[in-house]
Amino acid sequence: MANYGHIIVFSLLGGIFSLIGGIILLSKEKWAHALARYATPFSAGALLAAVFLDLLHEGVEQAEAYTVLLATLVGMIIFFFAERFLHWFHHHHGEEGHKDATTGLIVVGDTLHNALDGVAIAASFLISIPTGIITTIAVAVHEIPQEIGDFGLLLKKGMRRRNVLLVNVFSALATVLFALVTFWLGSDAKLPIGVLLGLSAGFLLYIAASDIIPTIHDEIPKDKLFDIRPFLLVLGAVVVGLSINVAHKYIDADHSNTTESSQHDEHDHAENDH
Predict the structure, then answer these.
(1) What's the domain count of the chain?
(2) Any residues with CB less than 8 A from the CB of 170 and at least 6 apart, and which?
(3) Which of 39, 116, 121, 124 lies at a 20 to 30 A Cα distance from 202?
């Protein structure tokens, strides 16, 4: 069973690990753009596999399928309106010469993404450690190209490199904070786990289908017949799908064996006391 130690460690991995792309951008811009180009489709496949093969699969075991799917729809709509508001704010305030407003908008949007990532990670660990690990991997992979984009935008807005790094570190900590709060509420049975998994699936599905996949279509090479990125999307789905099977097969099995062993030892001690 997952504990607060798991949440802290893996939410830190999900949040801080995503800064790797931004750090590479600060040191080697060409490497960062190449990484973003090929990590983006891979992350889309990873997210889709995590949503359909793990989060929704676990969700329907915790609640009725209709409830979980409704929560998924609600999650997508919530994220849509959140992104819609950010775009509205940008067009009404960012284009009037207020660079600080635009910069703040980028930071707020990134923090919102990180916070929802924390919710998804914690909701997954409330089910099992393997589910949490798979979700963390999918979150970290999709955050790398996103952070490269956010770092690049902040640098273009004139923010100093050191400040860009500090801002994104603090923004990444939102993943840890929201993961801990979600896990605390869920551990006390104050949250319906099936609904929470559905909402998390909706958030990640929206990111994959609305934010990531369209960028792949927008950058279709005109002078090349072959494009490796669609195959990287498939590869991301396959890798995460296989990881889900391996994680649940071996980690869950080890956990079940450990639990049965401890229960057997407790039974033997009880008999010896008698």
Answers:
(1) 1
(2) none
(3) 39
Task: Count other Cβ atoms within 10 Å, centred on residue 115.
Answer: 21
Between vectors from CA 60 to CA 81 and to CA 131, what angle results, nearest 5°?
A: 85
CB distance 79 to 206 below 8 Å: yes
Q: Say how far residue 197 (Cα) sits from the centre of its chain.
A: 13
Q: How far apart are CA 111 and CA 126, in angstroms?
A: 23
Residue 219 is assigned to a structural domain of this protein: no
- In this prediction, residue 253 carries a pLDDT of 58
Residue 264 maps to a domain: no
Please report the pLDDT score of residue 90 as a whole number.
53
The backbone torsions φ and ψ at residue 159, rounded to the nearest 5 degrees and listed phi first, read -75, 140
Residue 177 maps to a domain:
yes
Q: Is the pLDDT of residue 220 over 80?
A: no
CA distances from 14 to 47, 61, 75 (A): 13, 25, 20
Average pLDDT over residues 54-64: 92
Does residue 246 lie within any of the structural domains? yes
Residue-number span of the structural domain to which 126 is assigned: 4-213+227-257
pLDDT over 50 at 261, yes or no: no
Q: How far apart are CA 229 and CA 236, in angstroms?
A: 10
pLDDT at residue 23, rounded to an integer: 77
